[in-house]
Amino acid sequence: MSKNNVLALKGKLPELNFEQPFSKYQDEPYCSYFKIYGFKELNGLFERHYFGSLDLCGYRIATHIWLPANPKANVLLVHGLFDHVGLFLHAVAALLKDNYTVVAFDLPEHGLSSGKYGELSSFSVYASVVEGCITHTSEQLPGQWHAVGQSTGSAALMKHLLFDQNHRISKLVLLAPLIYPRSWRSIKFLYHLLSPFLHRVRRGFEVNSHDTAFCHFLEKEDPLQERYVAVRWVGAMMKWARDFKTAKINTMPVLTIQGTEDTTVDFRYNLQLLAQKYTNMQIANIEGAMHHLPCEAQKWRDQVFSTMLDFLN
What we know:
This protein has 313 residues and is of the alpha/beta class. It has a single domain, classed as Rossmann fold. The protein has helices at residues 2-8, 30-37, 89-97, 124-137, 152-163, 184-194, 212-221, 231-246, 267-277, 298-312, and strands at residues 48-56, 59-67, 73-78, 100-105, 145-150, 169-175, 200-202, 228-230, 254-259, 281-286. The strands form 2 sheets. An 8-stranded mixed beta sheet has the order 1-2-4-3-5-6-9-10, sandwiched between helices. It has a two-stranded antiparallel ribbon with strand order 7-8. Helix 4 packs across helix 5 (152-163) and helix 6 packs across helix 8. The model has no long low-confidence stretch (mean pLDDT 94).
């Protein structure tokens, strides 16, 4: 029943209200949502929490904002493919402990945001949602903006930043960024072969973290996980990889954190491409870490967050 309660929230959150912090933690279906993903881990780390939706690009975007007592800057946190904010609470906690305001949203068609998965045809939509989220919240959140993205979330941020020279973000952290996936040629061949006939293919839950409990939760317990890969999304990813190569050179401070046992993205080639576009980029390789860096086992996760915070500070 609690899983059904969570699904009942998808695309139906009330508008984000800055006049009143969120207070319905004990009310269903919110209670089920907060309980399943362990939001209580954040208790005591923030002074105010706002939770609701922003109407952006034709979607109702589920959005969280956590404010610590003495915030020193704002951090926009963007999750990866198939993920949502409920899976990124370790990252939220690390940022709150270091006195950053955290703004995090579910990408279109993900988590509690509206949209049927598989309809998105371009990463430009992700970029527009990033821009809209900052625009709609910056008036209430003065101060500097930084951004942290995981995998597809990194792609969403880069799509916004590389093609919008008037962006507000001062520093960018890329966690296992997606440009080219591993086995690119096979994916490309299968896409052109099957896309005229198939709309989706069944998803395989790869082991992308040493945290076995997390991997089990994704496959068996998370009610917000999709069970299929949308062929149309693969086409959007392929277009993003082409677009990246045409982007202008950028001088903003960038930190790329990459696990050396990542089997999801072609990280060696991606790092070469990133170095060509970002002339002020640092690279931190986390030895032995897999793809899902914010949800790695603690040994690797601690390294990721300490490296991230050193850069932001």
